[in-house]
Structures are given as structure tokens and as C-alpha cells.
Amino acid sequence: MRRLPRIVRWAALLVLTLALALASAAWLTARPGDPGLYPPAPGAETVTVRLVAQAWHSGLLLPRADLARAAAEAADGALVEVVERFRAYPALEIGWGDAGFYRAVPTLDALDWRLALRALFTPGGRPAVLHVVGVAASPEAAFPGAEIVTLRLSRAGFDRLAAALGRAVTARDGHPVILGPGLYGPSLFYAAEGRFGLHNVCNHWSAGLLHDAGLPMTPLLDTLPRGLVLDLAWRGALQSP
């Protein structure tokens, strides 16, 4: 039996080493969830939310009525104002991202790699925005082609998520800062807290809000939308609608 050429053996060893290094890094940076919040206790009140994962971006689809309740109970005036502006819609899809790249790239076809690289590698990160969309159709109809993960959160977990979302809204004199029309449907861009960069992309933000709701997260795996979906599946967080 012929032995594989030395260069092939070295290449295989390199691939294996990189795979082990990445797996180790993912494990070492993983953050545990809060079992007091997630999964919900049997028979407890729950709130259904959805992760919407596109080719390069993910956001959260949240029930507007529950978000309005949580914002009002927390006396978060800026978030109440955002939610009230979309009161005609039963759900809101909310995403976070780089202010320049997010607003300039509505679809994957419009992807500008120069903008993408600038957004990812600017030292200190770049300003961020929130994109809020009013959604009336079913998730599958509203986001054809997207991977949609359905999650049932405890009420306390959802309230933690809403509080984290409220902290992401930049407010001036108690009011959210509107930056202009959004990318599709009834939507608006809002100024947001946080800095966008390679170590804090939109998918980390989505995962972070779910982490606030009690779910575990793996930042390295969550860098890409598909990785975030796999992370939820790997941790057993996927639930039937």
C-alpha cells in the first residue's frame, strides 16, 4: 500500500491542528446559560421569539405586545416609543450592525467587500445602528429563504432580553434617535449603543440578547449566522413551533 506524499500528510496534520485549535477556542470562550431563566419551567408562562438568520446577518423577531409590556414595566421610555411607532404590527424584527455597512448593503448582491472589511477591522470598532421592521405576515412569508429558529423563553427571560434591547437604543432627551428609512418594508434605522467590529458583529448581538434571556452562547461559533443556528441546535435550544 502506497504511503501518501509527505505534503499531503503535512496538509492533513495542519487541517487537524487548526480544527482542534478552533474547537478548543470555541469551548474556552463559551458562556453558560442561566438555568433559572431557560429553559422555562413546565407550565410556566412563555414568550415565543424567533431568530431570523440570513446569508450574512441575523436579527430577532419579537412579539410587539410582549415587548411593549416589558418596556412599559421597566419604564424604558425610548424603547416604548420605538415599539409604539410600530403599533400596527404584531411583531418586530430587530437587528443591529455597523452604521455604514448595514445601511449601504440591503442585499447580499449589493455586498461591497471594501465596506465590509472597513467595518470589521477599524481599530476600536465603528458606530452601530438598530434596524426595526414591522412584520404582519408569518415569519416564513416575511423572510423567504431565511433560517428561522423558534424559541420559547420564560417571561422573566424575555424581560431580561427586552431590558438589554432597551440599553441598545441611543436616546437623546429620553427619545430614540431616528436615522432614516430602513432597508425593506415598514422599517426605520435608529442610532444604537455599542461598537461594531470583528469581535462584536450582528450575530454576536443577536446571540447576546438570547444569552440575556438565559441561553448559553459560543461567541466564536456565533460569528456567522449559520454558526449561530448550529450553536442553538448543538445546545438543544431548537424547539418546535
TrEMBL record:
This is DUF2459 domain-containing protein. It holds the Pfam family DUF2459.
